């Protein structure tokens, strides 16, 4: 089954759309607040479609993601109890939110660096940082560093690999996709069995 190859080809077509840069900026912005699909899912195929623009695309993703993070921080600061907390419970992010609270208590601003760079839902940390009245300047600086690291790493690798990487990735995308899916299911099962 070539499900992931078809999705990959579709992403490359979307990435070549004349409004793709605006879509990337929009997705990057809202992903920092509530959107479930990570920015990398749009950035990677766009950088593959236009490797000579890869670093510019990373800059756009970083700036809009950090601005979305600031919006998430403000929403968390002013509407957490009334709007954000019910949303967190409804979407099943309660455990992630409680874990974020523990991590903020233990690690402070370093948690924003980790969340902004890793696949951990960054949106939970932007909203929680605002709700906890975390100092804004350290939050903002950590967001810039973390989002820059993630997006420039993705775009830089793609720019470095160029067209050859695009062909190799397409060749193995189904193996990679199914492998990631199986690992995700195994991780979920292991997590639920051990907790």
UniProtKB/TrEMBL annotation:
Residues 53-157 form the VTT domain. One of its GO terms (cellular component) is plasma membrane. Keywords: Membrane, Transmembrane, Transmembrane helix. The chain crosses the membrane at residues 20-45, 57-80, 100-117, 124-146, 175-194. Coiled coil: none annotated. This is SNARE associated Golgi protein. It comes from Kangiella sediminilitoris. The lineage of its organism: Bacteria, Pseudomonadati, Pseudomonadota, Gammaproteobacteria, Kangiellales.
